[in-house]
Amino acid sequence: MKYRLLLVDDEALELDALKNYVDWEAMGLELAGTARNGKTAWEKILTEEPDIVITDIQMPVMDGITLAKKIFNLNRQIKILFLTGYDDIEYLKAAIKVSAVDYIQKPFSDEAIKAAVEKACIEIEQNQLMQHSVREGRNALIKRICVAEAEPEVRQEWLEKLAQLNAFEQEGEYYGMMQIYGVPNGNLALSLQNKLSEIISVWQEGRKLTVVIKGYVNTGDSAKRMLHLLEQLTDLSYNGVFYERRIMGRELPEVFQILESYEKYMFYSETGALRSVAAEEVHSQWEQKDSDMESMNSFQKRLTESIMSGNQSAVAENADRLFDVLLEHRASRGAVMKCLDKLIYEIEGMCAIERNREEMGHLMHQTMEQVEHCLNMGQIQETVMGYFRAMTAYNAADVPDTTDYVVQKVKEYIHRNYARQITSADLAGEIHLSQNYIRSIFKEGTGKTILEYLTEYRFERATELLRMPWAKVKEVSVAVGYENVPYFCTLFTRNYGMTPGEYHKKYKS
Q1: What residues have CB less than 8 Å from 461, skipping those under 6 apart?
Q2: pLDDT at 399 over 50
Q3: Quick check: 354 pLDDT over 60?
């Protein structure tokens, strides 16, 4: 890695010698610019962000000592090397006060410059290692302060240690905190921390991320950025809560508990919800009532019976009652999953269509996998209702043949959606059966692949449109699902022995 270097000297000849006659690249340095006085140098430091500054001491407008003090207050990680032609002990004392790495006597030599630069580079590397260690330690310490149970004196020791780490990092004593729900397992916590510099600490428990950020950043704006970034990374939506004001270290455990009280509340919120939380808004009324869930057995029994009888209206009615009870009991995500696991396994076990037993098992596991990735109760209900409808259709008296059911559903979906791109995944989501099963059953029932049927149907619609006097080939192509007009024309010519334009001229009414 190359470090960036700024050269500052009011003597034009000496600055030119430094810039052009020293092989900085061989030392692993990249020249970030030059300046003739401290004021110009300060402006470049703010824009160019150098790692090392080599500066003369005696300069007009702003001298080197004043410049070094400003650098020290801005960023102590920038290393300062002084150029001096004065053998003056007072200047050396001033250099020490602003933590200068070294000084180089004029006239300078290559060896002296190289030795001073190497010393600065070593200090930068050591600081980077130390910073990484400090940040890792602070991340773990903040989590411990929030999560771990400890005696007051022990927690106070942790807070004092946190203050020391903040001082080393030149960070303030204020923080922001938020929680994000529905996050899949993986390296998303690390991805967030790498991409957003305001994050101080982040950890994941189950499908929940807790994030602590720097106090000078607006917590609500930061929460929006994180939800947006997570959506970009995963193509999923998330819910979140954030504490509305910045907090001090001693408040971290209390605010963490306040946010924790919202986890169940957000499970029953709409997808993509982001809520601001204040201290007085702890959701104590959403306490666990999972022990009361035994009352649901009767609803589960009636729902199972209506599914096995193939009665779709009764299924919808009983399923609504089931989810109303779950909502009334404010059931936790774990209790909801336990209830639905039991119900779905019971339905799958009672399925009487023996030749589809394997497919029923696959559908059951596919559904539960989808439920695991649902963000909230609304998504879970939608996913499970799809499973209930599919299982009801298998048992319905008017759909005795699974092949007829699949063929009918595929055709209906194609007839509604032929104008856009259709994938096997779309069909699987619509029919609630696996992609391979749908493909094989459709071919068995029609003698055609799904793509063959889709293509035939699209060209049936295309010929209907091309018979219209106003028809234009490009518009017809797009209307039947082909954005690539030349490709549409090639397929059409292959099927009908003439181009779409020729067909239009010949058959338009």
Answers
A1: 418, 479, 480
A2: no
A3: no
What is the reported pLDDT for 281?
57
- We find that the CATH architecture of domain 3-127 is 3-Layer(aba) Sandwich (3.40)
Compute CA distances 78 → 104, 171, 437, whole Å.
17, 16, 63
- Over 50: is that where the pLDDT of 400 sits? no
Closest alpha carbon to 490 in 482, 481, 501, 499: 499
CB atoms near residue 228 (< 10 Å): 11
Beta bridge partners of 471: none
- What is residue 287's predicted lDDT score, i.e. its pLDDT? 47
The class level of CATH for 402-507 reads: mainly alpha
CB 461, CB 480: distance < 8 Å: yes
**220, 242 Cβ separation under 8 angstroms:** yes
Q: Do residues 64 and 81 make contact, with C-beta atoms less than 8 angstroms apart? A: no
Task: Please give the class, per CATH, of domain 172-282.
Answer: alpha beta
All residues at 6 or more sequence positions from 202 whose CB lies less than 8 Å from its CB, including other chains = 139, 189, 192, 193, 209, 210, 211, 212
pLDDT in tens, 270-289: 888 898 887 655 544 444 44
In the DSSP assignment, the letter for residue 208 is E
pLDDT of 259 above 50: yes
Cis peptide before 107 (omega within 30 of 0): yes
Q: What stretch of H or E contains 342?
A: helix 333-350
pLDDT score recorded for residue 154: 83
